[in-house]
Amino acid sequence: MAVEVKPATTSGTTWVYMAEDAPAADRDLLGGKGAGLAAMTQAGLPVPPAFTITTAACNAFQSANKEFPQGLWEQTLASLHKLEAKSGRKLGDSANPLLVSVRSGARESMPGMMDTVLNLGLNDDTVAGLARQTNNERFAWDAYRRFVGMFGRIVLGVSGEKIDHAFDSAKSRAGAKQDTDLNADQLRDVTRELKELVQRETGSPFPTDVLQQLELAIKAVFNSWMGKRAVDYRNQFKIPHDLGTAVSVVTMVFGNMGDDSGTGVAFTRDPSTGKREIFGEFLPNAQGEDVVAGIRTPISISKMRELWPEVYRQFEQIADRLEKTYKDVQDLEFTVERGKLYMLQTRNAKRTGKAAVVTAVDMVNEGLITREEALKRIQPMHVQQILVPQFDPESRRKVGEPIGRGLAASPGAAVGKVVFDPDRSAELAGKGEPVILTRRETSPEDFHGMAPAAGILTSRGGSSSHAAVVARQMGKPCIAGAEEIDIDVARQTLSADGTTLHEGDWISLDGTTGEVFAGRISTIEPDLKLETELLTLLGWADETRTLGIWANADTPEEGTRARAWGATGIGLVRTEHMFRQEGRPPFVQQMILAAPEARLARLDEEAESTARAEGKTPPTIDPAVVEQRRRARREYLSTLDTLRGFQVGDFYGILKAMDGLPVVIRLIDPPLHEFLPKHEKLLEDITAARAKGQSGPELEEKERIFQAVSRLHEQNPMLGLRGCRLGILFPEIVEMQVAAIAQAAARLKKEGLNPIPEIMVPLVGTRNEMALERERLEGVVKDVFASEGVQVSYKFGACMELPRACLVAGQIAETAEFFSYGTNDLTQTTYGYSRDDAEGKFLGEYLKEKVLPFNPFESIDREGVGELVRIGIERGRKQRASLEVGICGEQGGDPASIAFCHEVGMNYVSCSPGRIPVARLAAAQAALGITPTDR
Ligand code: PEP
Ligand code: MG
Description:
Distance between the termini: 53 Å
Number of helices: 36
Structural class: alpha/beta
Shape: elongated
Bound molecules: phosphoenolpyruvate, magnesium ion
Strand order of the largest sheet: 14-24-23-16-17-18-19-15
Largest sheet: 8 strands, mixed
Helix content: 40-55%
């Protein structure tokens, strides 16, 4: 036998372990499969003799230009000899051949992502030996043809299609329908043809040297670690790329030796429901690859109990034992060879969120694990999965591949008819039609079409884009920034991957994965009340966590929902959302149009009274101008009065829904132009009307609005007249809001309830801004309580959204009783990335190219933004020890950010209602010191 045996050098490193001697607990070194084989062997379970080449060897191989490290091959041969001694067979021996499988297995299980070669050791000599050994010539040739096909494809890189085609044409020549219809002679011919195919494709004969086969197969498995499939999978599941795969070489046992043989996979509990019973499937008279490749349809494992009761009982006992050993649900592979059971693999099972929660809680009740362990084990994603509608797997399968993908911006499955226009969305949804609102991006004016939609799809924008934030808060599935989908709102079409959808066509979104499907997939609804195990688990989480979990909510309905999910406060009411409710925009517009002149009227009055006080002559102003300004001011104040009426109702509702719990109400924040029609649209309308020679009050009104919009226009509105700057320039607006809050609170108090309002000033950057706002507004609160004759406790605080605010936090805390970190803006202002544009323009590329390791709008940037937060808390609390601190940016619902918030000593995190259960778990995990990996 011509074998290239490398010089026998010993490197001092152990690269290869026999299963009976391996450090079974070291999954890092042995990979999951190697560790499982070692543990089962050492526990005396029926496992075929095996050895494992370590992950360290794989890494050494990768970094040494794909050469085996010193000593590896010699150790492999030495282990092979031990294997031969144990099995009483010899690799390459024509009389009594040993066959092995060469299996991949990394620390983290990556099902199907790497390669495995079965039946290694066959050639024209050994096939005869196998036939004699098994007394089954057909079996031997079947094994050989399988090996040539598999080795050809996996190790030698011959196209799988060509191999399948060669096999299929041989089958049709032989008139065989099933693989099993081919007899020994026919299989011999197929094997020859396959070898010829390999020679044609690779230019070299099929390797008959069994040690060469082994060497090549080990290298192929090492190489599959860096294969595209595996790399993509690791990227998706955030598995590090430097773990490497181990390679286990296992004595072949055969499930295809007749009707008393078979092969199967099973879970110790149902991996989709968590039900406590063995769940799995098996195939009589088959090899494992038949199950994996779907060549034959396996049957339920319960049938095995009927067929082979003895074997089944043994299997059940082993399953139970393995579960108790690993204290987790096991995913098992086994083979029955002529009535004898062999265990080939055990690993912790992948499972759905539902199964993860059910099994963790059950295992606590069974005394197998502690509550703490159960909390540690559940991934935040698991909880999320349970609480959103999901696709019915059966229906999902039928629809096939997605037509496109975007950011998984708000989880859950949504199905409906495509609409491109928010008015149309509202109209169709009003008739009871499920709709998916599809836009390039959404803006606040689209809200009326977003609220009734089943889901939202945008081709631009990121995870803190308008669509994403609003959808999450409403608990609505959303996919944002699906750039590969062309949304043409003018033509009313959506095209992707060769498919074009029009208004009314069915579309299905999976907001949990970001996948978009053409067609209608049925969904399954969750019901928290029925999720008893989840409720139990979250109860344990509540006992463990120290962080409060509050919600971002703008309506009583959202507040009630948040409470039902377990929120113990509202951390952000964005009051401007209330201005956009039905019937209010005309008043808001009126207020904005009158505001600038009303302000001048106020300044006139102030100048006059100052002059009089100083004994000077007041400035002279044209009386017509004065009158016009006064008129504007009267209109302004009366509109504000109307709006106050609305706002009292709004605040009454939300404070009532949250009776006894704190509600942080943020004063108006966005630039005023956001409440007016778009500049370009007005210009277009006015030009068109003029061109048609139209005139009259309607056009005049449009022109008036146009002028106001032009006046309000700013190059950079996010850094412009917004936040507390608005309140300082137009105090009447925020005074109106604060009066409404106080009136609502007073009313509730009189009704015997316990409202706890906390008034938040947005975008504070200086000591004076906070001090001035508090001074002015606290006066309003006191006046209302005095005239109502009640006292309600309240707080004033700052929304911390500017780096400067964090640096001068001590000064701000002189008058702020709480800080709430608005990390959407704080991220924007710290990085200098526009939160509305960055994700669509360059952030995607930055993430792809790893310029940024993660999206800071999704998960807090500890080093920069986080450092500012930390500094702000320290300086703020130094000034005011009782300072209450929370977060209300989108990162507040992200597990990794929640861990950070815990570490820096915040009092609570506030997130959209749908993320509350996840946040409860994440806060408990933070308290247990677990770092979430799913960032
Ligand atoms: C923030 O900036 O993080 C915040 C909560 O405010 P908004 O998203 O409304 O700007
Ligand atoms: Mg903000």
